[in-house]
Records
---
Amino acid sequence: MLLEINGLTGTPGGPFRLEVDAGECVVISGPSGIGKSLLLRMIADLDENEGSVLLSGASRNAMPAPQWRRQVTYVAAESGWWAANVREHMHPAQSALPFLSQLGLGEQLLDASVSQLSTGERQRLALIRAVIRKPRVLLLDEPTSALDEKTVLRVEALLKDLMASGTGIVMVTHNEQQAHRMATRRYHMTSGQLTEISA
Amino acid sequence: MTPINLTPADLAIASSLVLLCAVLSLILSLRVHRALLLAAVRMVVQLLLVGFVLRIVFQLSNPWVTLLVAAVMAGAATYEVGARQEHRLPAPWQFVTGGGATVLATVTITVLALTTALRPEPWYNSREALPLTGIILGNVMNAVSLSLDTFFNTIRRERAAIEARLALGSSRYGALRDVSAQAVRTALIPTINVMSAAGVITMPGIMTGQLLAGMDPVGAAKYQILLMFLIVGGNCLGAFAAVYFSIFRLTDHRDRLRLDLLRTR
């Protein structure tokens, strides 16, 4: 098992139990404000939490938090940017090029100023920023909420490529069709607990 | 040296300027007359009181009395640093970050100055030690206050950016590097301005005082240069200490950003 979560408790409730195998996409849905984002943040260890979280059997608490987050990377619904230009967020910048074209973004965006990006561009660039760092698990919080249907499919194609190469994905989405297309396993979140539903 | 002795009449003439400002404020409804008059009265009472207290302290020439006065000054500075912050850590951390950084930097710099450049006889000679402590303390207090204000405001505004860096695997120090640099820079800008303008645009207070008291201008300049170096050192140390105490407090051992620990008044 790639990611094994047991007895995870924190602000959104719990204990939560969740397993993600390599190449799997686990989709979590549920009403707004129920704590789906907080659940992803807990898995990434960005908020206080308790419980056992293992990556390929290695305990999260046995490694420094930054090392954990480089392997289990959270991509927030609203991205934050710390430098003026897009390029400064991409390491290494060259590795972003193939993903830019795959997601329908021009190469010149690499040198664009963050403040001039549209919401949809930011959303895709924030995903690329995480993907080029090659995490083993991606925690995606509504990764396509600002995109048109055609672009949504491009993002999904990229995610399926990643899954084919062994990346595990946990995705929060309100888009029912997307859940159908992407999920290898589905959970419904109600206050403080996850219930498995048929994919 | 012929120190100037001011009569109450001299002060009364100068005080008419404050009254004039207050009257103007009334006429133009600037609504600052109350604060202005209150601050002026406070200033007069505080300075006269300090004058009388120092007269006694200088006569006693006792190290414990000198330390006690310095401790009271440090306590007041600690309170002032905390009082100006829009966002702050809950007590006791508010005092550790603000007051702790101020006192740490002031003590370090004052002891350094008293044991090397100034070397008064005896070392606790309050006529030298207390004014020096006061100058350093006042400046460091400003620097710490500015750095904390900038740090807390920026960290709140840039929360998404900081968390994005953490999520991508930065350590808490890496993720907060820009914010801390900004805070220290803001704290040092006034000092850099004062140094650049010293002598050309403004005549620093201590030098002015010594010139008025009849000291040789070059001697007064040297003394002022020493003080500026001490102030820069103190401000730098104080701002860094305040920012690093705050980072330590607003993050945890798992490199999480803990803004839930920050209070807004």
---
Amino acid sequence: MNNFLKEIWVYAEQHYGKIDKVVYELLNKSRKLANKLNMPLVTILLGHKIRKKAKQLIIRGADKVYVLDDVICNDFKDDVYANILLKLIKSKKPELLLFGSTLIGKSIAPRIAANIEAGIISNCVAFKLNYSSKTNFEKISFITTNKYEGKKEITTVTISKNKLKIVVVKPDTLIDRVLQNRTGNIIDIKLKDNEIVSKIKSLNIKIKQQTEMSSNIIVSGGRGLGNEKGFILIKQLAKAIGGTIGASKPPVDLKWISNNFLIGKHNIVSPKVYIACGISGQMKHMEGVNINNDTIIIAINKDPHCKIMEIATYAIVGDLYKIIPEIIKEIMFRRTNKINNVYKK
Amino acid sequence: MNIIVCIKQIINSIINQESNNKRYGLNPFDEYALEESLKVKDMLKAKIIVITMGTPDAEFILRYSISKGVDEAILLTDNAFKGSDTLATAYTLFKAIKLINNYNLILCGKQSPNGNTGFVGPELAEMLNIPHITCVKRIKSINNTVVIVDRLLDIGSEVLESKLPVLLTITKGDNISRLVSVKGRILARKASIKIWDMKFLNMESNRTGSLGSNTHISKKDENNKQKNKEIFTGNASSIAVKIVDKLLENKII
């Protein structure tokens, strides 16, 4: 007996008016699922002065957007957001609730799960549908990945039938497909006065320097560049690949590049892809790079034995002044000719 | 000040130096949580209780915690706990904490390596009906009513003040884990560990273990063909072609 609302809900994370890119990718993935299951795709948008952004979600696949535009949602607070989301979920009872795998998603999702005794899964990379002729329902299972003890584990997980399914989904491509003329409904939610009280106060917030380009890809330069002209190459590669630039300490000390781009202990980055050019990989620099199970490190260095070559996913041995221009050329070539080496999952 | 630290034993490649039994160790994130609790104890009068839900071997990490300076240790162990997902685990910890009853601060490691979910902390906070803050790099200050922390966000970092009691999940900060003293080692050997099972916690069997879990693993594959190291040498243009193939393959471009 399943009295859930047959809808797929996606939490639309945003920061100070900007919707997080993982949401767009998640909408993409769940739009396909919604089509297969023939269910509407609904998103929840909490924030302040955020209502105008609701359209961004609709043109990316949402059929309905619940918007709560209130000053109390201006800053993210774990208890406030979780509370609001919980009220909405308890009143509507959707069957499937999806979050992007962000620090915020992973903070709110479990609170909701605990309150309503849902089944909650993390590290999901794909959905699998199995049609059961016996029950006449599509049974959904979730593919998750985890790296443990040096091995990559791929686990298929299901959730009990009579429980709300909450799934935290890992981003992988950050693809953003837009259909400008798509339409949908925007539903405003209002809070009653003093309905939500927070026990947490924000004293100070420090926002990492982020440019319009994706900081999911960082192209970084080190002493091996030899001189400041090396950063011209770094910037060109960053532009070609759609990333931002960074540097280790030696080039900054040598004034080849501004200290704004220094990556180290006091300026930590968490890119998906880290391209280290002429960087040896010393601890002082690498502790500025958050490396997790899925981080891809590409190193370009003359020395095949330096530290970074040991930890790189792809270690390129050679002269970066010869290699980087070739890589840029190859990327442009592929793009203009639209040649796709297809490695479909 | 009463502090509870929830820790988890892992089968590890990271070996605690003190361990005779090299198979087990403490979840590295829990190591940071432990250190934060000891830092608080350095700052003001505090009692630290450490709890773990695990197999009987988990006694090792409890004694290790005592050697570092915690005051009491409790092992939650029962065959019925086997197969617990994050919610069932959080519920078990919740029952234990309800029994302890007196606490101002609860610390957990941000996540553990064999699940990497980071869910137990927030779930536990919800069950206890207290606020929580995840990814705390360090506790800046604390008194009997509030705590001020520095926490990570995807967009940067933030300083938050929370009323007590509160649950914090701790991630890597600047702290270096303190060494174990000789006195600590002696205390750890002599310490009496409380052992609580399902009956003692007055738990229903359908709230724990695989019976109490809403998520079920239907298939587990190990993919040893990892996205592992590949080395590229040779002439620049052939390297470029190969690496751009990889970029496309990984959907980077």
---
Amino acid sequence: MCGIAGRILSAPGRIGDDLVDLMEAQRHRGADSTGFALYGEPLETGYIVRAMAPERDKLSADLDDFLAILRENGSDFLADPTYDNADTAHVSVRMTIKDPKDFVTWSRQADTMCEQLEIQSVGRSLEIVKDLGGASEVAEKHNIRDFIGTHGLGHARLATESSVSPTASHPFWARLFPDVAIVHNGQITDYYTWRDRLERKGYRFMTYNDSELIAVWIADQMAQGSSQAKAMKDSIGQIDGVFTYLLCDTDSMGFAKDRWAIKPLVVIEENGQMAVATEEQAVRMVYPGNEDIINYDGPSMTGTWQISSVRKAA
Amino acid sequence: MSEVVVTAGDSPIREVNIEIRARLAEGNSVVVRDTRSRHNLGVGLPAGAKVRFEGSVGYYCGGLNDGAFIEVERNAGWSTGEAMATGEIIVNGYAGMSTGASMRGGLIHVKGDAGPRCGVAMKGGDIIVEGKIGYMSGFMAHAGRIIALSGADEACADSLWGGEVWVAGPVESLGVDSKIIEPEPEEVASVEELLAGRGLGDNSREWQKIVSAQKLWHFESRDASAWLMI
């Protein structure tokens, strides 16, 4: 069992604050780890990189290695990297980088040092922040509530299929596609079959979390020219298991639900803004009034909301 | 019987339920405010109790009901009235998945639509849904009646063992091992009488009564492919 949430604002605002409220209300669905995919004002050029290093003591050396790979690819830091100063061994790092000459080449090369410094997201706008603990603890450690942006995702994890670690939690970046992220509630039952197929095609998995498969699977569909909407629709017939997941980029947020209608999704849309979550009590944290809710409870459903005007296309 | 207010807010649900019971024990009926769609409200309420929830409730509201009258002003989450023995639950809005799961008796009356697997594994009692019942409603039910006044989603009455699913309006598709049969006039009269007693009388309805085709009663693994939906 996990809890997911998404939030879209009609103009940049305290997106982090809303997402923490949405996730805190679903803490009972899993509090071993919590994560956020936050979309701030997009950069015109350059990328924001969020990464995690398992050994804080070695961070400075790891960043030197990371920078060397950046420079080999015609990129550089645009500012000094920042990181949390908690007393945990692992450390979360935020970097802004110049556009590499070739994004995919750089990204693949940077991933070769994933055991030292694992990239968790790259985007003009997207920042994935995830860690151990419930929403409040993660929010406090990483200052999530003060994040200003237009939209984002949240995830509360109760690990059922793989280990608990800060990197194995959600959201997952659709590797090699800047700004694309997913959160998932469910279990993927043909995980190893798909993982094997995708690894043969050259995709790298960072964890044994079955939800990472959805992110990699979507990236593979996009690499073949599929739109996100089509990929979500196709995933229902091709990925086996019970799932409700949210897929987000800078322009849109979508959802897909499995054939068995197992995992719920509750939505409130009002005045160009939207909140979506696993449970009604979460969306009521941001809409405490009498707004009507929509329950997407049926089987094989997908939908997309546009970020600018929050229109749903079924 | 005087009506007293209990506020749920962010109090621990155990404390809210203890307070509801304490107020009921003093001979009051109870209105619960600021429900925030929280789970497990009003579970295991005793016979004679009368509790109304303002706003919406979360999962398992009125579960293990033992004879109480419970009303939810708006929506209910999963498994409203799960395993209830007797009593009555009214949901004025939408009732989420698995409404009346494993219920043994009593009545659940949903004024909006009901989500997937309404009446899953029910063993008795009646569920009335004025709207539409969701995907796979009646899944593996053993006894009792589900009565839907505005149609049924796909795979209606899937793997029904016993009991009846009554649908007025379109049935999008039948689930495995269920069939539509012609109801006896006295059965229709019994359903209409129940509905009339709730202000829903309408003798012009065209009923589809769905029951088990009873083939899964004697399941053989060599026949498994006949039951696979995908």
---
Amino acid sequence: MKITCEDARPLVPSYLDGELAEVQASPLRTHLLDCPACRETAKEGKILQRWFEPDPSAVKVPPGFAARVARRAFAGDPGVLVPEPPAVRPRRALLPFLLVATAVAAALLFVLAVAIQRQSLPTGNGLGATDAPPPWLDAPPADANPAPAPTAR
Amino acid sequence: MITMHELAREDVQLVEETLAGNPLSFQLLVERYQERIFALVRHYAKSAVEVEDIAQDTFLKAYRRLETFQRQSSFSTWLYRIAVNTALDFLKRTGRSPVQAVEDPELSASPVRGQAGSGVAITAPDAHLRKEEIARITHEVLGELPEIFRTVLVLREFEDMPYQQMAEVLGISIGTIESRLFRARARFKEAMIRLHPEFATPD
């Protein structure tokens, strides 16, 4: 199967990384043999890879490193660079406190509301209302026996 | 010869023994991976002391989180993820974090794969350059790249990591790995030409 440059070029990086399935790699190889432009693309990719050689002067693991790390780990050492942030804890504690405070406040309000309601209700078995006229209706009117008017001399 | 599968099984065994309270098993785990972790984190550090500090913190973090290790991925993948995050945390804490990548390859509308003509090309390292010198130049150029590009180049080019494992370490898709690698390589070439124009070649 033949492929075009347009099909081939996107495949070149994966091909160089060894990530291309054979079903795609095979036609690409054929295309690279025939196409100088795509071959140049592949060559550039290979040149770039040559800059990533292992460094012989890289930092070596110091003797006893593993034993030291294991000892520190089991001693509960959190490390020197990125300790667990302690500032997070107070914030975490704030939410439960607010929830409890809100619940307590709500309960107090409820108790208060019930108490007020009970106080305003009438006491006794009945409702407290009778058919008898109110007491002020039994009393004689204020002007029933008016005082005699003074006589004229 | 020990196969990858056997290695992974031995790792899990050592993890379980460590969780059971055996310090020697954890020491063996560290010994297995210390070379690779040192090699990885040195690309984020400027001195041997920093390399050792980041590597040590990586293992201490791994120990503290060992109970959260799911056997779905390999121990090495899990450890690499911790190492990369520890190194990036270190860069942030030291204020050495280079410019963040503004372009997110996943959000980028333009196709990125296969755009061979990025406008720049570099030559191969001179034959007379010693390996140490090549490594120093590469380290310098990598230091100019945003973290996300530096990390994919390090994992791919130095650690020879397959795309699938890179995707697991970084928690992104293989498609994103491909596009990010493409951009990282283009940025590497640009930075190389800016810092070392003697290695530029007409594209």
